[in-house]
Amino acid sequence: MKISAVRGMRDILPEETPLWQHLEAEIRTAFGLYGFRELRTPLVEEAQLFSRGVGEATDVVHKEMYVFQDKKGLPLALRPEATASVVRAYIEHGLYAKGGLAKLYYLGPMFRYEKPQKGRSRQFHQYGVEALGSLDPALDAEVIDLSSYLMERLGLAREGLFLRVNSIGCKGDRVRYREALREHLEPRRDELCPDCQRRLSENPMRILDCKREGCQPAIRTAPRSIDHLCPDCRAHFQEVLSHLDLLGIQYELDHTLVRGLDYYTRTVFELCSRDLGAQDALLGGGRYDDLVELLGGPPTPGVGFAGGMERLVLVLQGQLKKTEKLDVYIVPVGQEREVWRTAAWAASRLRRAGLSADVEYLGRSVRKATQAAAQLARCALFLGPEELAQGQATLKDLSSGKTVPLPLEKLSSPDELHPFFEPEENGDVKGGCGGGQG
RNA sequence: GGGAGCGUAGCUCAAAGGCAGAGCACUGCGCUGUGGCCGCAGGGGUUGCGGGUUCGAGUCCCGUCGCUCCUCCCA
Predict the structure, then answer these.
(1) Strand B: which bases are under 7 Å from protein Cβ?
(2) Given a cut of 60, is residue A426 above it in pLDDT?
(3) pTM for this entry
């Protein structure tokens, strides 16, 4: 039986992990600069957390969620997104009682049972932030600013990106807006695609982001959510936009941006790339002022976003990081047992001195092993009967080709060892291996 | 969920019903214990899997799994 990774879930191989680690480090740094602190929540939650929080009617919950029962029959779900988990933890640990604003971030795998394609898999990775406890529109703008700053840090050109913003109002606004949409669309039911006809009764707002040609005329003339905002929501949105202007962030108002999760209120936004295919959203988010209360906490507003790691990786493929080279690759010469034992010992000493080291365990010819060493390491350390007899090894700098004897006793003393590996100053033949990095 | 295309060596790909191949990579040798160039030789495959048609299937048919893309939805 041949076993392979399950559909839509893949291995991230050592060639790719340096890029992932780089992205993760940049994300953590950016989030930290904005005052967010990491919260790690379980990958598994009670299924009802998501059906209540994200919405029973959403595709994410009712079509795409991995649900199973534990041994006691409790319905569990692999998390399809993290906001609901963060809010659950916020309530469970009484973070609201600790005063102030809770600014939390996360990073990790999410699961949705979908048909895999470019930029979409069943296990994927999201990074995101949630700011809980303030209704200040400056915070909406800050979160958007953070997403923009993150892209700058990652070296994504502004021209390749576009930011779409909209406001869908509070609960009451949405009820009124939904009615207005129905009134507009019902007479045009025949123009709409079958999906949209179904949405007309279930969730008319989702018709707005239908991409079918036939639906466009009805969508273009449809009423806009920002015309149905209550005075508070209208003022809030204006403040958000004015803060974005202040921060110098370019955006386009998109009246068709509604997003697929039920908990969003007021501000919604999406940051998209021009370099991706059908799945072009790098990150998306917005405000969710009713979610904490909905999940049993005190009324607490929130705003945040989530981004997809895989999509970042796609956009940044060109920047693949090279794997870091080892400091030393040890090549035992010949078959003598004592030589090989000394090689293993030397590796252990080098590592304790803080130098990364590996040994030629495959027993290839010295020629082949040296070739391999040049791929893997900055220096090769040759160790054979001749060296052993003199109590030393031969250290070779693989970029300059220079060799120098390294007395074995130096291996026991990091202080004496390090000079051999420090970059040469003013070209002095000090020996060693720090030379040109090539 | 619906649609289209593709699965051949570790990788990139040939073979259009008739002996499964090339390049790169890998191993050895030229060069006996020191890389990058060059030359020679070698190892590698149940052609995704399972059926069927045929004297004969990588090739045609059916099924299945996987990948890619579109639709849908979203990160």
Answers:
(1) 1-3, 26-29, 31, 33-36, 48, 65-75
(2) no
(3) 0.92
